Amino acid sequence: MLTYSFSDIGNASLYEHLYHSIKEDIVSGTLKPQDRLPSKRSFAKHLNISTITIENAYAQLLAEGYIYSLPKKGYYVSDITELVYSPKSDRVHASCASEASSSAFKQESDAGVSVVKEAPVAYQVDFASNQTCAERFPFATWMKLMREIMAEKSTELMTNPPGIGIPELRAAIAEHLQQFRGMQVSPEQVIIGAGTEYLYGLLIQLLGREKVYAIENPGYTKIARIYAAQQVAVRHLSMDRSGICMEELEQSDCDILHISPTHHFPTGIVTSINRRNELLNWAAASDGRYIIEDDYDCEFRLMGKPIRSLQSLDQMEKVIYINTFTKSLTSTIRISYMVLPPHLMELFQQKLGFYSATVSNFEQYTLAKFLREGYFEKHINRMRKFYRNQRDELLSCIKKSPLSSKVTITEEDAGLHFLLRIQSSLTEAQIQQKAAAKGLRISSLSQFYHGTYEHTVPTFLINYSALRLEQIPMAVELLGQCI
Amino acid sequence: MLTYSFSDIGNASLYEHLYHSIKEDIVSGTLKPQDRLPSKRSFAKHLNISTITIENAYAQLLAEGYIYSLPKKGYYVSDITELVYSPKSDRVHASCASEASSSAFKQESDAGVSVVKEAPVAYQVDFASNQTCAERFPFATWMKLMREIMAEKSTELMTNPPGIGIPELRAAIAEHLQQFRGMQVSPEQVIIGAGTEYLYGLLIQLLGREKVYAIENPGYTKIARIYAAQQVAVRHLSMDRSGICMEELEQSDCDILHISPTHHFPTGIVTSINRRNELLNWAAASDGRYIIEDDYDCEFRLMGKPIRSLQSLDQMEKVIYINTFTKSLTSTIRISYMVLPPHLMELFQQKLGFYSATVSNFEQYTLAKFLREGYFEKHINRMRKFYRNQRDELLSCIKKSPLSSKVTITEEDAGLHFLLRIQSSLTEAQIQQKAAAKGLRISSLSQFYHGTYEHTVPTFLINYSALRLEQIPMAVELLGQCI
Q1: Which of A35, A121, A129, B87 falls 20 to 30 Å from B248 in CA-CA distance?
Q2: Residues of B (342-401) whose Cβ lies below 8 Å from A
Q3: Residues B259, B271: Cα–Cα separation, whole Å
Q4: Cα-Cα-Cα-Cα dihedral of A131, A135, A141, A147, to 10°?
Q5: Which residue does chain A place closest to B161, by CA atoms?
Q6: Per the CB < 8 Å rule, is B197 touching A356?
């Protein structure tokens, strides 16, 4: 049976160490495709560690696609696509090519949700909203930091910042990515902007308007609207359980692939390691190809283990990483950022370096301090606890209600929402209409598909991040009345 | 001789009343082109008011192009181009078509300057900077308002704002435009964005990428770079003393004209009333034509009288008005806005209404309060006094220095800079080089021309807004050593 030593594992947890050890054996070929892994119980007994530890390590390997499971049979090693292109050493930045450290594990989980924004309407219960409740935002801390910044940095506050953002914030973000995502990023690669939508516009200017862009179908509908408004060609690629369909991608004429591999919206699909390598190989096959990795909600994953970013697998400067504080802090402070591969950063400075900053110095300095002094980490931990509580309450209410016999809940780890499949003779639209009449706003999965599409089994997105705890029983009651 | 009654002039000053009376007579045809106006002294005696009042009224009419002067001969009525297109009544918003009220006169003056931004360098004296000194920004007030906002509006602060900006700020801006620019604008026409550069990008998406854009030559160089980065066709049109050359405009294939008619950068040229009407006629002649009026520094004019905006002359929904708080408050708070004609606002909501806000709620609410409670007006008045003092000190230092015999100062009312023509055997580039060696940064007028261009008489932009009073004698001394 597989044997690993746990005698010298440093700061890593047993689970981390086991996960890394098995992964290394898979990547190195010591474990071959289709090899069967030991059963959890016997492996635990053999290694003299708890079954939970094995379970966690297997779950993580499964989520990332290194192994697969067959019902009632067990866990098997996947056939991992190799990265066929090796980096051009003269082009790749040392700090980018290095492996992600195990500090990715400092963060337990990530997830989140984003929903097409609409003007606030008078719904009683809003399962489609992703707004932050006012009592959740750390006003006192934010105010305190801003006061300190105004007292200490009046000259800096009045000094025109570099268009890409103040060095302090870019350094704090690089540090954050290192600690929470295990990403090796230099502050020089970071660009700050007033929201991801603005950054998408900058990327089109950087990569070129003549390029063909491809996005996920289903997906976050706003991205499609932005590419349309920018008058660039866009393709809609289907998803399978492992991510973007490679066949469709290979057959398409697209140059730039815009995806959320760590956590697809709205289905929660995690792009498997195999598919990740296939995607990187696809990108490396032609000079003009790039992948935009939209990691919009990596801070909130309530259950799962951290999934490595595609950016940290990339050794060919093919991945542009993009993320935002609008999900993790509040959607009403407009600060997002992207990480460009070094050669694209150079191009950016030449072509677009003249642009002024789009985020106020006041908020850039305050956020830098918020990150540096550990407030962001605390905030995230508090929010995760809060959201977990919301989810558990909602799930338990559903379980206890008559609804429970008619619904299937999937992807409850998908972020700040889950998918609810309903056995009903009604269509999605009919259920939505009935819900609206009861003051319930609810998004259907079909709404996130390109063109007309309707799931045969009505499926809805239940976003619980903006619900009030005391609302939940009533919300479930109302929902039950609609089906 | 011309006679006007001053018995019932309401709140208007004598000067305002006289200006309006003469203007009306010119527009109505009572005063005919080439009619000679009374000399200042005889007119003053006749009306029993001071010569200064007559002088101010004439200066204003002259600045706007209603009259012209012949040296040693006097003032004559201009031949005003009529607006040949009349508004389609079903398309024009009532509040837009109405006359600007005399409250435009509440503001004494406007001006300002904008310069290609660079990363801060260690110059001893920077005649090219437009940064706000830290001690000039009202930190205490800003902090107080932000604290109040956080205390009073925590729910609103966490509520996703409309993409075009919070209603409070849009209303405050409409009110401000009414009071300071005499513009009749509805808050529904206002769009807030993170800097004018961002708004230019939105306008291209709104008006269409296939359109041909035209800009001023010389002009603010960044605008040309933005259109280039956005990959749209752009034409560079020459300026004469009255504004954009109509001949070049008529011969060009451009659809969208982007200008600063109230105060051209860097020459300070005010587009004459005649030329304004010609421009509006040009725009009205074809459906797809629009004028972008960039009013970037209307708050600072140290001497001049207020010049009406082109937007307030427009009765055909052809003018898009754009302005910013980055000049008037600080360049490091990124809030700008534009005013769209109603039919374009409708199109915006259809095509681009899905975009999220780019300015943080915190700063939108704070600025709204800052405007509403009169702090902005106070700030502007204080800054005007400060800048006037800077300018006077600089001019007096130059007058007293050996430099005075070799330079001509023009457009000293052009904003927060003036033009300095230097009699010298050196070229502009040589003088700049010598200046740089002495730690002096200085922009030449030629730098603002499209392509290669060099003024035969070396001409420089002297921006005094960021100078320290105590620096000024030394700065003049150093400059003197360079020529």
Answers
A1: B87
A2: 351-352, 354-363
A3: 10
A4: 80
A5: A332
A6: yes
Partner B, chain A 124-183, Cβ-Cβ below 8 Å? 131-137, 139, 142-143, 146-147, 150, 154-155, 157-163
**CB B105 within 8 Å of CB B313:** no
Strands (E), B194-343: 212-217, 233-240, 243-244, 256-259, 290-294, 319-324, 336-339
C-alpha–C-alpha distance, residues B52 and B43, integer Å = 11
Residue of B nearest to A117 (CA): B354
Rounded to a whole number of angstroms, the distance from the CA of A197 to the nearest CA of chain B is 7
B233 close to A (CB below 8 A): no
Pairing of strands B440-441, B443-444: unpaired
Higher pLDDT residue, A466 or B147? B147
Contacts of A198 in chain B (CB under 8 A): 194, 198, 358
Q: Are B130 and B465 in contact (CB under 8 A)?
A: yes
Q: Which of A297, A337, A328, A367 is nearest to A141 (CA)?
A: A367
> Among A123, A352, A354, A364, which would you mutate to test the B interface (most chain B Cβ atoms within 10 Å of its Cβ)?
A354
Query: Which residues numbered 74-133 in B keep a CB inside 8 Å of some CB on A?
Result: 116-117, 119-120, 131-133
pLDDT tens-place string over residues A415-433 = 788 889 999 889 998 999 9
Q: For residue B359, list chain A residues with Cβ-Cβ distance below 8 A.
A: 194, 334, 360
B453 near A CB under 8 A? no
φ and ψ of A234, to 5 deg: -135, 140
Q: How many CB atoms lie within 10 A of CB B82?
A: 10
Exposed, middle or buried by CB within 10 Å (0-12, 13-18, 19+), for B473? Answer: middle
Tokens of B345: 């606002």
Lowest mean pLDDT segment, chosen from A216-230, A252-266, B458-472: B458-472
Count chain A–chain B contacts defined by CB atoms under 8 A: 156
Could you tell me the two tokens for A154?
Answer: 């009046």
ipTM value: 0.81
Beta bridge partners of B244: B239
Q: A32 pLDDT exceeds 50?
A: yes
3-state secondary structure of A294: strand
Q: What is the pLDDT of residues A41-90, one digit of tens each?
A: 989 888 888 888 898 888 888 888 888 888 888 999 988 777 666 544 44
Enter the tokens of residue B436. Answer: 């740089």
Q: Which residue of B has its CA nearest to A350?
A: B229
* d(C-alpha A304, C-alpha A286), whole Å: 34
What type of residue sits at position A188?
A: E
Chain B: residue whose CA lies nearest to A365:
B332
What's the rounded Cα separation, in Å, for the pair B57 and B51?
A: 10
The rounded distance, in Å, linking the Cα atoms of B419 and B459 is 7
Give me the phi and psi of A235, to 5 degrees please: -115, 150
* pLDDT recorded at residue A438: 87
Do A389 and A469 meet the contact criterion of CB atoms below 8 Å apart?
yes
Tokens 């929470």, residue? A180
For A432, the token pair is 């939505």
Cβ-defined contact of B162 to A119 (cutoff 8 Å): yes
Do B360 and A332 make contact, defined as CB atoms within 8 angstroms?
A: yes
Beta carbons of B158 and A150 less than 8 Å apart: no
Residues of A198-237 as b/e, b for ≥16 C-beta within 10 angstroms?
bbbbbbbbbbeeebebbbbbbbbbbbbbbbebbebebbbb
Mean pLDDT, 10 residues at a time, over chain B (483 residues)?
A: 80 84 87 90 88 87 86 87 57 35 31 35 75 80 94 90 96 93 93 97 97 95 94 95 95 97 87 93 96 84 72 95 90 95 97 96 97 93 88 92 89 76 90 89 90 82 86 90 86
Q: Which residue has the tokens 């269409």?
A: B208
